[in-house]
Amino acid sequence: MQNQTMRYFLYARKSTDEPDRQILSIEGQLAELREYAKKENLIIVKEFIESKTAKEPGREIFNDMIASIEDGKAQGIIAWHPDRLARNSIDGGRVIYLVDTGKITALKFPTFWFDPTPQGKFMLSIAFGQSKYYVDNLSENIRRGFRQKLRNGIWPCCAPLGYLNDKNTRTILPDKDRAVFIRKTFELYASGDYPLAEVRRIMNGVGLKGRHTALSTSNYQYMLKNPVYYGVIRYKGEIYEGKHEPIITKALFDHCQAVMTRKSKPKGPKLKAYTYRGVFHCKECGCFITTETQKSHNYLRCTKRKGPCAEPYVREELITAQIKGELKSVSLPPALANGLILMAEKERAASAQAVGDTVQKLRFKMDSLTCNLNLLLDMVLGGKLTQDEYVQKKFVIINDKKVIQDKLAAFARQSVNRFEPEINFYTEAAHVGEIAESGKPEENREILKKIGSNFRIGRRRLSVEFKKPWEFLLNFNSARAKNNNFSAEFLTSENLRRGRDSNPRRLAPYRFSRPAVSTAHTPLQVSCPAL
């Protein structure tokens, strides 16, 4: 008779956030509990259904149910198991307290026995304690698994944009469809010519997107600051050496961080776009040369910020013509450029060995750094280092290893491509005159800024200091203009081997610096230096 007059609340809960599994689990609980109540002749006055973890207090529906019990609207609860009611000490204590005060006189579970006696309350507290222990232990096991994955260099969760989770190896692999877009995003931003909003517009336009939606500007900012793309995992402020394949180099990542830092500084008011704004200085006083428009023509003049200056105005068209002349002065005739390219290609074909000794030393240093990492861990375990000291020293060592890895990769490319800059220079020098003649003023300005420096205007004349190797090419063209036979003499192998010479008649093309290479391969014994 008591069961027929006592009123019960039915409570069903599922903590997972996956909708399909969640609905199925709750439906299963409801079906079982309704059948159990019918068999036991229990009166259910209301059903409470919740989809939230019980690890922490604060469940709204559970709190509403407890408040209704305190108001006397029901005297008992039907649930699948005590762990459905509570997995934390506060909610479990509330239930037991209501049993102590007589607000709850019955708790019904198909899988657990309960009676409102001292022994029953003791068993209920044990069940709640076991539920709390289970969830606490589960969280610790998950955190321990994360830490072990990180120590092994494995990305511990869902792969970031540009990578895919490999279910077989439990690691991440570059997404072939997106990795090229990720690399292009870093390259665009590193150029410094595109703000984040423009990078987003360009990359979204070519097809880069997230798993479900288009990427926002903040998504791109997060991507550009994430070190996972150069092979390092950052987790809760600590970095770990990743075993996954990097999409970009650390140098490119660092360049992007420098650009982001520079762009974060406050900007001044936007000025009118002039072709040569901020490019030239006054040869007389050193102030910037500015541009202003008078009668539909642009004129360049000294800003005179340091005081009076006698430097006259000069038409923009005149400076444009002088820039073309300067570019032509460092160009090469196609026949001469082809001869230099042919000699460089022969030298490249004759090079059989590359960077042997240097690579061996770098690998030795890499082994030493790995050994130092192990020593650091031993020192932490031995109490000789604090956790903060360990994190700082580990950060330095891992970054050093990434720098060495990038150098090794660069040497591997250099073994085949170390002549490419030289060949590209000869090719560019052969075409720079043609580009100067046909290019727009903005294009010629950028070429001039690339190959020269210290641009000054004095008495309406432009002066430029060319960078190497363009400076040598300027001297060569000057000497060749004075001696018609100079180009033929220059192409002889004897002159090419002379290197840089103060005598223009013996001027040789600038050789790009290359690392010293030793063909001797002496085995090295790896030892760990003291930290």
Compact overview of the structure:
This protein has 531 residues and is of the alpha/beta class. Helices cover 51% and strands 12% of the residues.
Structure description:
- By secondary structure, the protein is of the alpha/beta class.
- Helices cover 51% and strands 12% of the residues.
- It folds into 4 domains: 2-147, 3-Layer(aba) Sandwich (Rossmann fold); 163-263, Hect, E3 ligase catalytic domain fold; 281-335 and 421-506, no CATH class; 355-417.
- The chain is built from 19 helices and 14 strands.
- The longest helix is centred in the N-terminal third of the chain and has 34 residues, at 118-151.
- It is elongated and about 115 Å long.
- The model is unreliable at 17-24 and 491-531 (pLDDT under 50).
Tell me how many strands there are: 14
Biggest sheet record: 4 strands, parallel
Low-confidence stretches: 17-24, 491-531
Number of discrete domains: 4
Helical coverage, percent range: 40-55%
* Coarse shape: elongated
In quaternary terms, these chains amount to single chain
Strand order of the largest sheet: 2-1-3-4
Q: Would you tell me the overall average pLDDT?
A: 80
CATH class designation of the largest domain: Alpha Beta
